[in-house]
Amino acid sequence: MNKRRKKAGYKSIVINKRRYYFYRISWVDITGDAGHATAEEFDKFEASTMITLAYVYKKDKKFLRTFASYDDKDEVFSDRNIFPIGCILKMEKVSI
User: Fold this and answer.
1) Number of domains into which the chain is organized
2) How far apart are CA 41 and CA 39, in angstroms?
3) CB contact at 8 A, 40 and 81
4) pTM here?
5) Per-position DSSP letters for the chain, written without gaps between them
């Protein structure tokens, strides 16, 4: 008996015959503070690690472009972000 193992599926959508995959994206963001701080407090001050859940529209050497909302009848995207590639720590496709 030959059982074929089913491949894991990933969450995706198709808009205008193009497939977009859903990702969990970890990235580094600027953290700011306008208050007074000692040198010791300043040395402990860190950037924020953020998590974004979104569909990847496009990725190139400089930028990652994402969207979270879309029109199911037209090629229209909302809740869009553009991340500099240097800010991205990790990208994971979300499984179904």
Assistant:
1) 1
2) 5
3) no
4) 0.85
5) --PPPPPPPB-EEEETTEEEEEEEEEEEE-----S---HHHHHH--PEEEEEEEEEEEE-SSEEEEESEE-SSSS-EES-EEEEGGGEEEEEEPB-
Give the separation between CA 50 and CA 94, rounded to whole angstroms: 17
Q: Is residue 65 part of a domain?
A: yes
Q: Distance between CA 13 and CA 75 in Å, rounded?
A: 12
- Whether 50 is covered by a domain: the verdict is yes
Q: Is residue 2 part of a domain?
A: no
Residue 6 in domain: no
Rg (C-alpha) for the chain, rounded Å, is: 19
Contacts of 17 (CB under 8 A, 6+ apart): none
In tens, the pLDDT along 10-61 reads 999 999 999 999 999 999 999 999 999 999 999 999 999 999 999 999 999 9
Range of the domain at 73: 12-93
